[in-house]
Amino acid sequence: MTEMPEQLLDGACVDVFPEPPPAMNVPDGALELALPTSKLWECGRVLDFHFLDGTDEQKQAFREAASQWAEYANLVMRFDQPATTAEFRVSFRLAGNWSFVGKDNLAQAAPAVTMNIFNMSSILHEVGHAIGCIHEHSSPSGGIKWNKPVVYQALAGPPNNWDKAKVDHNVFAKYDATTTQFSAFDPASIMLYFFPANWTLDGTGTHKNDVLSETDKSFIARSYPGCTVDFSKPEIATGGCTVSVGPRVLFNQQFGNSWLMNMPNSSFIEVDFDQPKQYDGEDIYRNAKLRLVHLTSMAGPDAGSSPIDIVVNGDVVVSDHSPPSGNFITEEWDITPHMLDGGNIVRLNFKDASTNYWIQTLQVDCDRLLD
């Protein structure tokens, strides 16, 4: 078996543990889903993945699994992007399952590997690390009673071959409680890693999960509130939302990097997203802004002559609005009074116009409140 590069062990979350038996007990109240605040990406960030190797089947499995996180987090994921600009460079050929955590990926210069997938069932778990989640056993409030001699001995042999320092770092070390976000204990979390019962003094253990739990979904949505739609590619990419379009809404073949609407009083773009106002009794955000990067005409007398209505949850926020420019500009509106506690809809209705309406980005930016 190929060995993991030595230099990756100190900065990455490493997941080379034994395979779980059919059933394990979970230490009651011991583990929590956790995320270090310093490693969070900014909400709405476009995160690019580059595949360093792998079969077509492996790459497609990765795309499908990783995208599940973006259904709930306001993060946009794009795949098959250049290695020089990608935040994540994924390999399938090294030993073990591991990934750098959140923004720690930015410290790894291309073309270095930032994530390795050895078992395909680990994709959701490793992408969880990439967007900032840590192992539950690294939670500052974790109450696991480790049988340290047994753990040292187990991980000293193949496939890990770790010395005590690496075991201390990857298993026993905990994050600072003042800089870490927590959810309630969730034995179904994808970030709950397996360890055997004999690794603890009280004979309890954990099991490995293969799907996102309801707590995973709500916690990551709380950590990355709002939503983003990236219209810069032929395939629309979304973070934390779904998008639907009306007639004659299509990718712009003329000068690219945008989609357009050009059927007056028929074309529309509608974005649906779930945004609670509180999580576990605490406010998630103070204000919400709708941000558009758009234009109506590249130049000439028709610039600014393709109005849209901007509608949030049935309320017309702006009527007959045209971007006051002949090139892409960023505009934003405070939509806090129009936001609902839960399901929300933003809709752009294309009005009677003399030219096209182009859009590159639609974002609902919620100023997340973190403890």
Which characteristics define this entry?
371 residues, six-stranded mixed sheet, elongated, Jelly Rolls, Collagenase (Catalytic Domain), single chain, alpha+beta, 2 domains
Q: Can you put this structure into words, describing what you see?
A:
- By secondary structure, the chain is an alpha+beta fold.
- 14% of the residues lie in helices and 29% in strands.
- The chain is built from five helices and 22 strands.
- Strands 9, 10, 12, 13, 17, 20 and 22 form a seven-stranded antiparallel beta sheet that branches.
- Mean pLDDT is 85; it is low at 1-10 and 16-32.
Concise synopsis of the structure shown:
The protein is an alpha+beta fold.
Number of helices: 5
Spell out the CATH superfamily of the largest domain. Collagenase (Catalytic Domain)
What is the name of the CATH topology of the largest domain? Collagenase (Catalytic Domain)
Radius of gyration: 23 Å
Q: State the end-to-end CA separation.
A: 43 Å
Number of domains: 2
Stretches with pLDDT under 50, minimum 5 residues:
1-10, 16-32
The helix fraction, in percent, is 10-25%
| Reported CATH architecture of the largest domain | 3-Layer(aba) Sandwich
Strand percent estimate: 25-35%
Shape: elongated
Class of secondary structure makeup = alpha+beta
- The first-level CATH class name of the largest domain: Alpha Beta
Q: What is the chain-wise order of helices and strands?
A: EEEHEEEEHHHEHEEEEEEEEEEEEEE
Please tell me the overall pLDDT.
85
Task: Let me know the largest β-sheet.
Answer: 7 strands, antiparallel
Number of strands: 22
